[in-house]
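Consider the following assembly input.
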Amino acid sequence: MNKKTKIAGLVGNPVDHSWSHVMHNAAFDALNINAAYLKFKVDKLEEFIDYFRSLNIMGFSVTIPHKMEAMKYLDKIDNKAKKIGAVNTIVARNNKLIGCNTDCDGAVKALKSKTSLNRKNAVILGAGGSARALAYGLSENGANVTILNRTAEKAKSIAEDFECGYGPLKDLKNIKYDILINTTPVGMHPNADISPIPKNLINKGSVVFDIVFNPYKTKLLEFAEKNGCATIHGIEMLINGNALQFELWTGKNAPVQLMRKKVMDCMKNAGNKN
Ligand code: ATR
């Protein structure tokens, strides 16, 4: 690093578990970009943004719990992030901070690698920020979306914004779906031996996408494979989303294969199998 090194980084709490620094730093090196991606464990977001505004920053990734609050402290929010109601990327441009959302496009790209979306029946489990990004992306691409959540009221609030169906998780047994997406943390390391739904509720022949990326193959995806479904691993959304962030910050095509290799190496070192 030197005086001209631009700073990028992850802003959230917790940030320890993240592998984004490995992907972004490898990409900066490969393209000879003088920038460094760091992890910032941040509680007071407003103070953090005020301080960093005056430094040589490229932008930030934003994660839990700041994706909605970040919108208050930026100079501009792009249309997609505004509609989704959450920012996962901040871009510094001409001394202004712009809020964007790459979760949505990252997830839609992962889905489109396995299925078309137009007129498909899609069920989203969970009703947090990730569910909002998915509900927006799927609706924009012509899918009929139903949001099912432990707290049905929260599902209702997203459903109203994006004109989707909604209900409690137990409604799943009555729905015929083509695409099932888990956005809850159920099955995430270290609780990897549980699934948000039992195996018998996974429709044979559907496409199942779990946004949980650690472990690589979640219990839900294991059940889905056994039921003959096509599966999409959460790591795909992470790689796509990070590649889009890199492109927003640098204006250059991201070295996606390199970023994929770097994060897969991390997963293998963490004891995950393919
Ligand atoms: P994110 O921003 O990643 O979407 P979030 O906003 O914390 O994360 O949302 C997590 C979602 O997972 C919520 O919809 C939550 O359900 P509630 O609205 O009832 O809280 C859901 N969730 C979390 N833990 C769960 C569990 N053990 N079983 C079922 N749903 C769970």
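Residues 64, 126-131, 149-151, 154, 183-186 surround 2'-monophosphoadenosine-5'-diphosphate (CB under 6 Å). Ask yourself how this observation constrains the way the partners meet.
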